[in-house]
Predict the structure.
Amino acid sequence: MEQIYNIAVEAIKKRCGIIPETAVVLGSGLGTLADAVENGISIPYEEIPGFLASTTPGHAGKLLLGRIGKKPCVLMQGRFHYYEGYRLQDTVFPIRLFKLLGVKTIVLTNAAGGINLSFEAGDLMLIRDHINFSGNNPLIGMNEEDFGPRFPDMSHAYSRRLNGLMRQAAEICGIRLKEGVFVMMSGPSFETPAEIRMLRMIGADAVGMSTVPEAIAAAQCGLETVGVSCITNLAAGVSDRTLSHEEVLEAGLAASEKFKNLLLQFIKMID
Ligand code: HPA
């Protein structure tokens, strides 16, 4: 394993005594879960060796360690995207670091465009599976055997057990949780209406520019993963609206209370 991982683990352990069991990656406009962290220790990404810089508006660029209820957690306030020009291998550095820190469960969240015609802006969608349409894969290159096999199985990338818990959490919160297949496009341009029609034909329900590389890296190193998309807009061509990042952030913020409640309930229920 590259030395940089050990250096990063030591840097975090020196700042914070907590050994996190659950990691949450917060998507665009979905950062409010951070308010629920008690006695949190916040570390800017630039102070963590191996971390990239978070350049996207709506992504704070901080790691937050602390407890949510009784659960020791680590939250990524902002993630790294392929469209920022980074190598996918580097964008999943935090996922592998979480594994080394002792994390067992990872919650991946994102803002996404709704492809499924029954979806509305503001809906939350449990990610049952994904399609990697990014044109790349974070595991390309020399395999780091310490993180898992060269050819990892992806049949159970999204944990059935955690999916069940997320459904229960939604029911307790009175949230109608949609479900579906998430597809990743590289971005940063939004899709064309023709691309959205194609993505619907191949079985996608929601589209975004993140999450899939993280889910692949998590599956390889044996982290139990659950994913939730916040449908911030109807995808291109589904409605006549012009798409913008500002609209995505606003819709994320509008849904963030619901989102926070769902995740708090879910975190309470995982063991
Ligand atoms: N397309 C791609 N990514 C997105 C979208 C979208 O419509 N909305 C939020 N992230």
